[in-house]
Amino acid sequence: MIEVTNLTKAYNIGSFGKEKFYAVDNVSFKIDDNQIVSLIGESGSGKTTIGKLILKLIKPTSGEILFQGKNIKNLKNKEYYRYVQGVFQDPFSSYNPIFKINRVFDMVREEFYPKTDKDKWNEKVEKVISEVGLNPKEILGKFPHQLSGGQLQRLLIARTLLMETKFLVADEIISMLDASTRIDILNILIDLKEKGLSVLFITHDLSLGYYTSDKTIILYRGSIMEYGDTEKVFNNPLHPYTIMLMNSVPTMNKKWTKEELIAESRRTPPGYCKFYDRCPLADKECKNVQLKKVEEEHYVACVKK
Ligand SMILES: Nc1ncnc2c1ncn2[C@@H]1O[C@H](COP(=O)(O)OP(=O)(O)OP(=O)(O)O)[C@@H](O)[C@H]1O
Fold first, then answer.
1. ipTM
2. Which residues are in the ABC transporter domain (predicted)?
3. Which residue, among 210, 205, 218, has the nearest Cα to 50 in the 3D structure?
4. Which segments in the chain show pLDDT lower than 70?
5. Is 74 contained in some domain?
6. Is residue 46 lining ligand 1, measured as CB closer than 6 Å?
7. What total of structural domains would you count in the chain?
């Protein structure tokens, strides 16, 4: 479905942009059909950047992304967005407050399916709204401010179902919702997976990742530390960073300042593991680390394992 190879996104930072900051650094992974993959990491680890790269919202510095075997840079946006869609953290920002909810669905018809008969389209809209557990009669005709965050988020998922969406980037989609609504939305994703959808589930919350996903990627400072079957990564964490995360859940929500970013980019000696300065096992061997297979469907980037 989606294959990411040696993906890198570097930004120029520092005075006169002379220094480079690697938001995503040589990342490779694969997401198969009918699979939910969690991308878990602290704030600033590069999760959203990977999501944006897959959604073609920004361009990679190097590396490539294939969708169904085709390099996405060669696919026209209109063609690509029929199949690959994103839903983000703040549902309110995705709606124009002066238009009724219906507008979001009408725009999909105008943009992607202008030849579809209006009545047929409206039937389809009602069907997808029901599929995400809402009553179309209660929802359609309302303005965004008349609905809850959870309802708006469900409608954004419904919107993706109007298209032939095969792959969804779900970036912190439940972090603004209350606890009971959260589980409902996760269950919708799991249901949709059963019907054929694949999802990159971006979160800084380990428990949400565990609940939702088949595979887990642990990201630290733009690089993958551990990757594999969710059960294996959670029940047998091997990378010192994953172990630390599971034990303590450190500053997952911290927002970095520009100065901290510059300090971050200088923190590890070139060639050394990104986790070097925090790792209890670090020593001079921790150089040129590659992801290596430790068991079936379980990979770790640590020379000590
Ligand atoms: N345009 C930019 N210029 C410079 N640095 C950037 C730019 N966009 C993102 N970054 C930096 O890249 C890093 C990765 O950002 P990203 O938003 O992908 O992190 P994240 O893991 O999604 O964090 P969060 O959980 O807070 O959303 C951050 O340190 C961020 O400050």
1. 0.96
2. 2-246
3. 218
4. 17, 248-267
5. yes
6. yes
7. 1
